[in-house]
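Structure first, sequence second, as always.
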């Protein structure tokens, strides 16, 4: 995921093994949030079965059904009824099983078994809670940054007044420095949470472009086949 999506936050979760119709399976979910991804478009869903990407019939897949039926508003996304949420995120859904229930012999989508959809939703909710913690923390840091910027405006004026009170020998720059140290001491160190494109050393831009182009081409081919 880090190689293909240059995001600011990554989270992954694996469910304990479950069973459908006597067949064991495991669900894995990953979410890449923020970064270069558009915030005004539906999230990107990448579907896998036994590590093989599923590129066609997204709407007929249990993975898409699970993503749509999850309440994403609780995790900071906007979402219309019966639609994928809108936000800067990519979701990876993977099912590993000795017998994956495909909708057809072409193996393009996963069948809607309640047990599978349930496990997918639980995995998405678990990852979503971890993502929400990050998003809420980032919002708090941004709000705190605005408060500190507002307080910083008054530091020179307070320093001027203190210089008058302390006398002509007082060092105004030293007073400002002490006030800033006092501000940080009482409000704590502000954590930097802005996106740094160079931080993800695993990201391969050429690989990411190739993957997006291949996926787009195959989706177009699938649409043409359906029309025919």
């Amino acid at each position: 995921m880090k190689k293909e999506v240059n995001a600011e936050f990554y989270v992954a979760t694996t469910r304990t093994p479950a069973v459908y119709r006597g067949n064991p399976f495991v669900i894995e979910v990953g979410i890449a949030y923020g970064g270069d991804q558009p915030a005004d478009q539906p999230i990107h869903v990448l579907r896998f079965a036994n590590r093989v990407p599923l590129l066609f019939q997204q709407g007929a897949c249990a993975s898409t059904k699970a993503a749509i039926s999850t309440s994403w508003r609780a995790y900071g996304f906007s979402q219309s009824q019966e639609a994928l949420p809108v936000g800067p995120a990519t979701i990876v859904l993977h099912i590993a099983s000795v017998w994956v229930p495909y909708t057809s012999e072409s193996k393009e989508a996963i069948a809607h078994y309640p047990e599978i959809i349930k496990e997918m939703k639980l995995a998405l909710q678990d990852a979503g809670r971890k993502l929400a913690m990050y998003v809420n923390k980032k919002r708090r840091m941004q709000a705190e940054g605005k408060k500190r910027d507002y307080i910083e405006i008054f530091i020179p004026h307070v320093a001027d007044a203190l210089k008058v009170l302390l006398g002509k020998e007082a060092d105004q720059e030293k007073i400002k420095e002490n006030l800033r140290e006092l501000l940080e001491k009482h409000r704590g160190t502000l954590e930097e949470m802005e996106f740094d494109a160079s931080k993800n050393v695993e990201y391969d831009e050429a690989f990411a472009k190739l993957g997006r182009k291949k996926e787009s081409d195959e989706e177009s081919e699938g649409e043409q086949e359906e029309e025919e």
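Margin note: Residues 221-226 have pLDDT under 50 and may be disordered.
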